[in-house]
Design goal:
Length: 609
């Protein structure tokens, strides 16, 4: 029955949409039957292609749908996506795509917009297909723990941690709507990424042009950092979206100064500040820019004060918690190292090719400096009597709006790095490169806009840079997908073994901190677990103990077991769960082992007699 629903029901949706979108009159039964049969064939052929060549899942389709509910749900979701998407794409093609042939020049005209939309959908799909796993590392498992709480409990818990609550509220919604499905936790990160893609293909395209939009959807989809955080169950995807919206709101303030621009900027800035503290720090540079705009008479003083006051009022409910967090962090935090400046700079255009990362950053800086120098007329280039003349001049009094906006985007990016490094050096380490991800979206937009502004070079340079970006990043994406599938397979196998063999009354002992912190609570919620090291002696009678060790037992580990009167037998070698390699050992009292060995010897002797 489930197989019939999965294979046949989405086709009904597609047939109905096809009838609605392409026919004015209600058709007869024969046409409906043909539409339905074609829909069944199209949807399931595409599904099989995805299952076999993207998900790399082989075997009997009907059996997998019937026996595995997770697979059935994924298959139905994919079928529904095709059922809805294909009719609307065909309608879009019919209404907006035209191919005309000019007989004089034999030229073809293909609208850029629909090609870019398809390109963006493909990029989004590359990330969407990665949400169907159940492999969560320690920080993700912590997010899921908070998602299972009430909103009040979550706020109290995260107030004692180091992150604001907005993302966790979104995650609570995903948890409750899905009933705790693993894919739904990923959707809390995919959703902001999807909104970002729509924003780019609509607002950014309209405001800054197709070149900017194409670069942005590419960066936001296949950059190394984007591939990670578009699906990771953490707040970085949401923070990047809100950070970019705040930067765009700052642009609106510069170019038109309407009340709506100020409101939009304040709301986006507050959203970023309620999502991540380093996003708040990055947004603060735009507030500093407002002060500069008052000094240079770009905006009026009362508007700046109104923005400041509204932001203070909006953040007041969390302000004391933030102060307490900063104080607690200054006294003690888990970080011990400070990232190198070069690592922070390469992170802005992160890839597995260092030359690409530094090249893109250098191009961004050169383009911004070139734009500012040219617009302020510091350098003037002219062609006179067949010769090219370069003249130096006094800079003009006022920078143009676009250059001012791009320059402050760069200041926010580099300022965040400087402040993070300074805090870590002067107080204590409290900064790692991933905290830059929210503001990375800003430098991507800065680069994309800067390239599109140089009209004479963008027709050649932009396609080349886009192709280079795809050539550098796509192989890493493919490698990441293969690694994720393999790790998810290992995690599933390890988890199934643990569920089958470790009972609710047993106790798991581990020397891996993340396993004890959050991971085991997610995968084995009803089994007690403890973080230990060699020398632990808190054993109880009549309790079965299991060791989840980071590697093979060392000689010192064996000596410790002998001292406490236990023997350990490895029952699962080279397992993997929650981002950690584990070796699973079952512990037994040595006297029990000796009795079992004696009994086995006695049975052997009797067998020989």
């Amino acid at each position: 029955m489930l197989a019939l629903i999965a294979i046949g029901l989405p086709a009904v949706v597609m047939a109905v949409l096809w009838e609605k979108l392409f026919f004015d009159k209600i058709g007869n039964g024969r046409r409906h039957f043909i539409e339905y049969v074609c829909s069944v064939l199209i949807i399931n052929v595409l599904d099989l292609l995805v299952v076999n060549y993207v998900a790399r899942s082989s075997g009997n389709l009907i059996h997998k749908i019937t026996e595995y509910s997770d697979f059935a749900l994924k298959y139905i979701c994919l079928s529904c996506l095709f059922a809805v998407g294909i009719p609307y794409l065909c309608r879009f093609w019919k209404d907006y795509v035209s191919i005309s042939i000019d007989r004089t020049g034999h030229s073809r005209e293909l609208p850029y917009r629909w090609m870019a939309v398809i390109y963006a959908i493909v990029l989004f799909g590359l990330n969407l297909v990665r949400v169907f796993d159940n492999n969560f590392w320690g920080d993700e498992a912590y997010s899921i723990r908070l998602a299972k709480m009430s909103a009040g409990e979550m706020i109290q818990t995260t107030a004692g941690d180091v992150h604001p609550p907005l993302y966790y509220l979104l995650l609570i919604g995903a948890h409750r709507l899905s009933g705790g499905q693993s894919w739904a936790y990923h959707m809390a990160s995919i959703l902001p990424y999807g909104i970002l893609m729509v924003f780019i293909m609509t607002v950014i395209w309209k405001r800054f042009g197709k070149t900017t939009a194409l670069f942005m959807v590419t960066f936001a989809s296949i950059m190394n950092t984007a591939v990670t955080y578009n699906v990771e169950v953490r707040m970085y995807s949401l923070a990047a979206l809100l950070m970019l919206l705040a930067y765009y709101g700052f642009y609106l303030i510069i170019v038109n100064g309407k009340a709506g621009a100020y409101i939009f900027f304040v709301l986006a800035s507050l959203g970023a500040a309620y999502t991540h503290y380093y996003a708040m720090m990055s947004v603060a540079f735009f507030y500093l820019a407002l002060l500069v705009m008052v000094i240079t008479k770009r905006i009026k003083l009362w508007k700046m004060l109104a923005v400041y006051l509204a932001t203070i009022i909006g953040y007041m409910p969390w302000f004391l918690t933030m102060v307490s967090t900063f104080k607690r962090t200054s006294e003690g935090f888990w970080m011990t190292g400070i990232p190198k400046v070069k690592d922070c700079l390469s992170y802005l255009f992160a890839s597995n090719k260092a030359w690409y990362s530094y090249m893109m950053l250098a191009l961004t800086i050169v383009l911004i400096i070139g734009a500012v120098v040219y617009e302020k007329r510091v350098v003037m280039i002219a062609r006179r009597t067949g010769r090219i003349e370069i003249r130096l001049a006094e800079p003009s009094a006022k920078m143009r709006d676009m250059s001012f906006w791009l320059l402050w985007g760069m200041i926010a990016v580099f300022g965040t790095i400087v402040v993070g490094e300074a805090i870590s050096v002067m107080i204590r380490p409290a900064f790692i490169t991933r905290y830059l991800y929210p503001v990375v979206a800003v430098i991507w937009l800065v680069f994309s806009v800067a390239v599109s502004r140089f009209r004479h070079i963008r027709k050649i340079a932009a396609p080349i840079l886009l192709i280079v970006t795809l050539a550098v990043c796509l192989p890493r994406y493919v490698s990441t997908c293969k690694t994720e599938r393999e790790l998810d397979r290992r995690c599933k196998a390890t988890h199934e073994f643990m569920e089958a063999n470790i009972g609710d009354g047993d106790v798991m002992l581990t020397n891996v901190s993340h396993l004890n912190w959050t991971v085991l609570s997610y995968y084995m919620p009803d089994v007690a677990h403890t973080l230990i090291s060699a020398g632990y002696e808190g054993f109880e009678q009549d309790v079965t103990y299991w060791l989840l060790w980071s590697g093979d037992l060392s000689e010192s580990d064996m000596d410790w077991l002998d001292a406490v009167g236990y023997a350990a037998t490895e029952v699962y070698h080279a397992g993997y769960i929650g981002g950690n390699n584990v070796h699973i050992y079952q512990m037994e009292k040595e006297e029990d082992v000796e009795k079992e060995q004696d009994a086995e010897t006695e049975r052997d002797i009797k067998g020989e007699i």
